[in-house]
Specification:
This protein has about 325 residues and is of the alpha+beta class. It is about 50% helix and about 5% strand. The strands form 2 sheets. It has a 5-stranded mixed sheet with strand order 1-2-5-3-4, with no helix packed on it. A two-stranded antiparallel ribbon has the order 6-7.
C-alpha cells in the first residue's frame, strides 16, 4: 500500500491531559483552556509534584518544544500550538510534613485549606439579581426557572464528554478490527530521524511505537471518509468556528452574544492558518463520527457524573 508522508503525531488535547506521563514523551495540543497561558505555568498545572527547578531546567535545555521550536518559560501558548514535553517524574513527598492548620472549622464550609490559604463557601441569596448575574437573562425570575436553566447548561457542557466516549470506543473497535496491517516501520523510523536531527535511533524507535496506533487510525479514518464521501466545506468550517467562538465568550460570562458578533469573531479566527487547519481537522472528525453514529445502533444510558468518570477511567 502507498503512504503519503504528511502525517503528524496526533497530540493529546490540553483539556484532556491530567498529568504528564513519567515514561514517555508527550505531545499536547493547546486548546481554549490553555490559550494565552505562560509555558511554565501550563507545565506546573499538568506536572503537579514535579519540582519547579526541574521544569525550568528542561525548558532551558530545549527538551520542551512549542510547535517544534525552542521556547522560554515566559512564552505565551496559543490556540493550536503543539507542545512536546519530555518524561517528568513526580518528586517524592518528604516525610514528616506538618498538616495544614485547622482554620475556621464549623463556621463556614471550607472548600480548600492549607497553611497559607483558606477558601470558604459563603452561599449567595437566590433572588432575581443573583439569577441575572449567573445567566444574564431577564426571563429567569424564580428558583424553578433557575434550576431548569442550570440543568440545561450542565447538560450542554457535559454533552461533549459523551461524544468523546463514543468516538473513543468507535476508534478502538475499528483499529482492533481493521488495524492488522503492516507498515514500513524501519523506513518511518528513519524518516522521524530525518525530520528531527536531535533524536537518536533509540528515541525514534520509541516514538514510532507510541505513534503506531495513531498512524493506523489515520489511515483507517481516511478510508472511511473516502467511502462515505465525507468532505468539509467553508460552511462547515464557519459553523464549527462559531461554536468555538461562542464557548470562548461563555468562558468570560458573555453567554448572549449576537449571531453577527460570533460569526465575525469566527471569521477573524479562521484567518489564522494554524487555527484554520485545526478547525478543519476537528470538523472532519465530527462529520466522520456523526456518519459512523448513523450507521450503528447506539444504546443510550443515563448515568451520574461519578459513574461516567468510572466508565472512562476503566479504559
Amino acid at each position: 500500500m502507498s503512504i503519503s508522508l504528511i502525517w503528524e503525531i496526533t497530540p493529546t488535547p490540553s483539556a484532556e491531559l491530567k498529568t504528564v506521563p513519567a515514561d514517555r514523551v508527550s505531545y499536547v495540543l493547546i486548546g481554549e483552556d490553555a490559550d494565552g497561558q505562560r509555558l511554565d505555568n501550563f507545565l506546573f498545572r499538568i506536572a503537579k509534584g514535579v519540582p519547579k527547578g526541574h521544569v525550568y531546567r528542561v525548558i532551558r535545555a530545549g527538551e520542551v518544544r512549542v510547535s517544534k521550536k525552542r521556547a522560554k518559560a515566559e512564552t505565551k501558548l496559543m490556540l493550536g500550538d503543539v507542545v512536546r514535553i519530555p518524561p517528568m517524574r513526580v518528586a517524592q513527598k518528604p516525610a514528616g510534613t506538618p498538616p495544614a492548620a485547622p482554620l475556621a472549622q464549623g463556621v463556614l464550609p471550607v472548600l480548600y485549606e492549607d497553611r497559607h490559604i483558606l477558601i470558604v463557601l459563603k452561599p449567595a441569596e437566590h433572588n432575581e439579581e443573583f439569577f441575572k448575574a449567573v445567566f444574564n437573562q431577564d426571563d429567569i425570575k424564580t428558583e424553578e426557572q433557575y434550576n431548569d436553566a442550570l440543568k440545561a447548561l450542565i447538560a450542554r457542557e457535559l454533552a461533549p464528554n459523551s461524544d468523546y466516549k463514543f468516538n473513543h470506543d468507535v476508534q478502538k473497535v475499528l483499529v482492533e478490527k481493521f488495524g492488522n496491517f503492516e507498515l514500513p516501520g524501519e523506513f518511518l523510523k528513519k524518516w522521524l530521524q530525518a525530520r528531527n536531527s536531535e533524536i537518536t535511533a533509540e528515541d525514534a524507535a520509541k516514538e514510532y511505537d507510541t505513534m503506531l496506533p495513531s498512524i493506523k487510525w489515520e489511515l483507517i479514518k481516511g478510508e472511511i471518509a473516502r467511502k462515505q464521501d465525507i468532505k468539509v466545506d467553508n460552511d462547515d468550517l464557519l459553523n464549527f468556528a462559531k461554536g468555538v467562538a461562542a464557548r470562548q465568550f461563555a468562558q468570560y460570562g458573555m453567554m448572549n452574544m449576537s449571531d453577527d458578533v460570533i460569526a465575525d469573531y469566527a471569521k477573524r479566527m479562521l484567518e489564522d492558518q494554524k487555527f484554520a487547519r485545526q478547525i478543519h481537522e476537528q470538523a472532519s472528525d465530527m462529520k466522520l463520527f456523526n456518519a459512523l453514529r448513523a450507521l450503528v445502533d447506539v444504546e443510550e444510558k443515563t448515568v451520574t457524573l461519578d459513574e461516567f468518570k468510572k466508565l472512562v477511567g476503566a479504559e
